[in-house]
Design brief:
Largest sheet: 6 strands, mixed, barrel
CATH superfamily of the largest domain: RlpA-like domain
Strand content: 5-15%
Low-confidence stretches: 2-30, 41-57, 314-329
Oligomer: single chain
CATH architecture of the largest domain: Beta Barrel
CATH class of the largest domain: Mainly Beta
Strand order of the largest sheet: 1-7-2-6-5-8
Radius of gyration: 27 Å
Mean pLDDT: 80
Helix content: 25-40%
Shape: globular
CATH topology of the largest domain: Barwin-like endoglucanases
């Protein structure tokens, strides 16, 4: 008998053997036991692996590969440039992972370890997402320029354990019971980055800030100024709802202030969100265990490693290694 026929006969016998209990189960008076046997036979015929389990294995493998690869080498450092065109006058070309600009936003500065004052009653020893922010940072982020390194823009006297380039925006995606109801609808990268119920998808997100010919990059690490629910401004096209301090809409750290050359404590800036894959080299890549440039185990570092290495895994179906398109305003 030809091999092809033998194969067909063998497959037919297997198929009949697997479906016989199912046919019996479909006959009048079939018992529940027969039905269960039929379902079990079909599962044995076509074994399946749970997609969640496969995705988990792939995620873990990707993290291990990212850690083995080591810290990410920053792209060309152009932090010395002071002649970047104003994106309000010369629109930047659209890029995947770059979100809409917020123009002419009043920026005020704040710092880790700041004590409450009459103008700012909220202390900054803790953040909205870190109850021991000052301890985890490693010390007082002294805003006095004389007490800061002019090359690294970090405070003198200790090595920051978190990135000194940080900002605050007036929205928090987490509330007492878990995520806020609108969070999944208004945050463009929510589905890609969401994991634990009480884990913020806003914390650690990168922003690009423009001021008088210079670009600075920093991580979102706190909520404010003055409110934590202004999603219409943070993720949409509205102006800041806050009326204090000339409608302040972003708080910047002393490192961001000094790098941009902002005199005093207030200025008009442009800012937008950018995915980590678009963040170039600069002083913001030098410090911090929360910094994906230095910690390859962080989610954003793993995503960038996957994009750079062009690795496709089951995790990509859940959004890892993908970059959402910026929403229209």
């Amino acid at each position: 008998m030809p091999r092809f026929c033998v194969f067909c006969l063998s497959f037919t016998l297997i198929l009949v053997g697997a479906t016989a209990p199912l046919l019996a189960a479909g006959s009048p008076g079939a018992s529940s036991k027969a039905i269960e046997q039929a379902i079990a036979a079909r599962k044995r015929l076509v074994p399946r692996v749970a997609s969640d389990a496969r995705k988990k294995v792939n995620d873990d493998s990707l993290v291990r590969a990212s850690i083995k690869n080591g810290p990410i080498r920053p792209t060309t450092d152009q932090s010395h440039r002071r002649n970047f065109p104003d994106p309000k006058k010369v629109p930047t070309p659209p890029r995947r992972g770059a979100y809409p600009w917020h123009f002419d936003i009043t920026a005020t500065y704040f710092y880790i370890g700041e004590r409450p004052t009459e103008r700012n009653p909220t202390p900054n020893t803790a953040s909205s997402w870190d109850s021991a922010w000052d301890d985890n940072y490693g010390g007082f982020d002294d805003p006095n320029p004389a007490n800061r390194d002019p090359k690294t823009y970090a405070p003198k006297g200790f090595i920051p354990q978190l990135n000194p380039f940080y900002i605050a925006l007036p929205y928090n995606d987490i509330q007492k019971g878990g995520p806020k109801p609108e969070a999944s609808k208004v945050i463009p990268w929510y589905r890609r980055d969401k994991e634990g119920k009480y884990e913020s998808v806003c914390r650690g997100m990168w922003v690009q800030i423009y001021y008088k010919g210079r670009y600075c990059f920093a991580q979102w690490e706190d909520c404010g100024p003055f409110c934590t629910d202004d999603w219409q401004y943070v993720f949409g096209g509205a102006r800041p709802r806050n009326k204090a301090n000339h409608n302040a809409g972003i708080d910047i750290s002393p490192a961001v202030r000094d790098y941009l050359g902002i005199p005093g404590g207030m200025a008009k800036v442009h800012w937008r969100f950018v995915d980590f894959s678009l963040v170039p080299g600069g002083p913001w890549a030098k410090f911090g265990k929360d910094n994906p440039f230095l910690n390859p185990a962080l989610k954003k570092a793993v995503q960038k490693y996957q994009l750079k290495s062009r690795i496709k895994t089951g995790a990509a179906k859940a959004g890892y290694g993908t970059t959402p398109t910026a929403r229209k305003r």
